Every structure is written in structure tokens, then in C-alpha cells.
Amino acid sequence: MRYSKVKQIRPNTLIVGIDIAKQTHWAQIMLQGRLIGKAFSIQNTREGFENLVRTLKAYQQKLGATNIVVGMEPTGHYFKPLAYYLHGTGMCEVVIVNPYHVNRSKELDDNSPSKNDRKDARLIAKLISQGTYFNLPLIFNTWAELRTANVSRMQLTQKRWQLKCQLITILDQYFPEFPDVFKNVLGKGAMYVLTHCPFPVDILELGEQTLCEGLRGATHNRVGQKRAQKLWEAAQNSIGIKEGAKGARLQLTHLVEELNLIHKQLEETEKMMSQLLKQTGLGDYLTSIPGVGMVTAAAFLAEIGNPDEYESYKQIQKKAGLNLKENSSGKHKGKTTISKRGRPSLRQLMYQIAYVSVAKNAEMKAFYEYLKNRKENPLAGKQALIAVAVKMMKVMLAVCKNRSHYDGSKVGNQNLVVRMQAA
Known about the structure:
By secondary structure, the protein is α/β, with parallel strands linked by helices. The chain has helices at residues 2-8, 46-63, 80-89, 99-110, 117-129, 141-174, 178-181, 188-196, 200-206, 208-219, 225-236, 245-280, 283-287, 294-304, 313-320, 344-360, 362-373, 381-402, 414-422, and strands at 13-19, 24-31, 34-43, 67-72, 93-96, 134-135, 324-329, 332-338.
């Protein structure tokens, strides 16, 4: 793969390494392994981008270069405006360089660990000339909309988790028995109580019967007399403190309001993701897999982009950081672990998909049990889940590329059954 990339950098290729920053980028031009001129700055404005294009065209004409390759580090989100702008001009190929590679190359360049923008731009250009780069995975149209919607969903989920922790902190002090009555403090019944009578004194004043009627109405009769009685008894015997109750009540009210708002925003975001999933035409295939729902399928496509751009599931495995690495040297045989170099959000998503699949997908459950119980090299629970995550990744990519519904007989568990019987 790296050799093919080196071949793409022809002798007359003008290479441009750009060190990305928030306001001012730095660029270094290279041709045939030698630096051309000094590093120059690029302002993160339209005028700055236009000046860069004019400069590159002038150098291309002056030096007789046939093509231009521009490389940069994917520094946060700051690289996106320049990358999309250059892609839109059609005058050059835009690639990315792994920041880890740039960092490791610093001392090889001048035997000094010092860092500055000009040096980084030079290192990026050198790495590109050696073929140490990756194609820039820019996404457009529905795929871009899916990505931004999924980012919003993850941010809302994170906020909800933080608010839930704050809510539990208050309850631990003023009504510590509450989680014993409601295991899910964000459920409909629990939220009704937190909205109308959050503290023991409020419940005792409200009365058990009124509380029961309120719970029935909030949960559509799923929660009623037994839960109301249990909550009433918890309120009577509560050891919660009473000092500072007014301030705590106000804080709890604000938390509940924020949680209700986030719940509404999550519903809107997931509805949009479901609509975008339909536009891709892949929703029916992905959701035919037991354990994969609409939101999960949409999140998967949001993370990987267009599945047709992948030749193998191993590319997605590497993007998620789920590829294996061996830690061995000489006679020492270390543990084999996952690299964790990739998109953490994709890695977390695949782990969640694996966790649900083991419960709802018969083939994945059998695969999981085999990995845990086989005679040679049995895996621990989490290790087996990682293996299931990779297998699910392979299955999900296959149904997308083949435009076919899930077929458990094609998962490859036939040989697995034979091995389990032999064991």
C-alpha cells in the first residue's frame, strides 16, 4: 500500500505540507525531495485561501510540475475549511498525515525535539514524499448531514449523562432511598415524581392516593399502587438531610427542566437521523440484522461514510482502532491488544452494537460463547465482545455493499458448530 502511494508521487509532483492552526496556517513546498523557498503563512480567510491557490499555480508553472499534492494534519476541526476549499478548486489532491507520525519524525529531522509551525510544515511535506499519508475522507450531501446529526446526538447524550450524575448527587443527600424505588431515575414515573414532589416532605404532603393517580397518568398505567406505596414508605423512613433544601430544590428543578429539553432534542435528532438513513437506501438492509436499530444503523453510517468506498471491513476495523497489535520482543511474548488508534466514537459504537447483538442475535451469541469456552486460547468477556464487534462490522459492511438483507446462515457459524462439538 505504501509503495503504491510513493509511486503516485511522481518526480514532477509539487508537494505542499501545511501545518494547521486556528487562525494562521504554515505551508512548505517541496519538489523532487528538495525544499522550494521558505515556509509561508496562510491566513484562515477567503483571501488567504485565494492567495494560496495563486501561489501554488505560480510555482507549478515556474517549476513545470504536472500535479500538486497538498497534505495536512487533521488537527481537530480546523483543517476542514481549507481542505474543502482546496478540494473544490480541483487543482490538487488533498491528503492527510497522521499527527503521531509527524510527532515521531521531529527528532529524525534535526536531532531536536523542538516544535514550531515551520518545522511541522516541512515534516509533513517530507512524509508525503515518502508515501506516509492517507487519502482525505471528505464527506458530502447525506453522508455529511448524517455525520453532523450523529455528533449532535453524542453531545446530547453526554450532557444527559452529566445532568443525571448531578441529579443523583442531590438525591443521595436529600432522598437517598429514591433510587431503590426507581431504578431508572430518568424514567417517566421517576421524572413525574422529581417534577411534582421530589423530596420526602413533598410526598407526605401530597398523599399516597394522589401520588398513585399521578404515577398512573404519567406512565399510562404501567406504574401505580405498589410503586406509590413503596415510595410513600421510603419518604416516611427517609434519612435525607433537610438543611439547604430550598437551594437544592431550585437546582433539582433546573436539572429536570434541562433533562426534559435534552430528551426533546434527542427525539428530534434521532428522527432526523432516521430520515437521512432512508435517503441512503441502506436502512432496510442494516436493520434486518438482529440487534441493529434505526439509530444504531444511522450512527454506523455517520461514522464510516459511504460503505461503497471500502474494499474490506479491515479498513473500518483500523479506522475504529480495533485492529490488533502484538507486544513481543525476543523470547518475551506479550499480550495482543487493540491499537485504539482511530475514531473513539466508532470504537464505542461497535462495542455497544456487540453488547446488544450477543443478547438479540443468535449467531453472534453462539460466536461469543464459543470464544469464551473454547479449549485453546479462550477469551475473557470483554475480549470476546471486541471479536463480536469486528464480526458485526464485517456483516454490516457486507449487507450494505451487497444490498442484501441479513442471512444468519451466511455468517459462517457452520464450522463453529463443528468445532464446538469437537471440543
